[in-house]
Amino acid sequence: YDSARYREARARRAGATEFFNMVVVQGVDQA
Questions:
Q1: Rounded to 5 degrees, what angle do the CA atoms 5, 17, 22 make?
Q2: What is the extent of the structural domain holding 30?
Q3: Most distant CA pair in the chain: distance in Å?
Q4: What is the pTM assigned to this prediction?
């Protein structure tokens, strides 16, 4: 299953995951 909408959602999720990981790492550093 490969469509433009699927690829777009995956790219958006990848960016959100990257941002989330950054926040988690910063939170762990402060903890």
A1: 150
A2: 1-31
A3: 41
A4: 0.44
Which tokens go with 18?
Answer: 């990257």
Q: How many separate domains does the chain show?
A: 1
- E strand map for 1-31: none
Q: What is the rounded distance in angstroms from the CA atom of residue 24 to the CA atom of residue 8? A: 24
Each residue's pLDDT tens digit, 14-23: 988 888 888 8
Q: In Å, how far from its chain's centre is CA 25? A: 13
How many Å apart are CA 1 and CA 9, to the nearest integer? 13
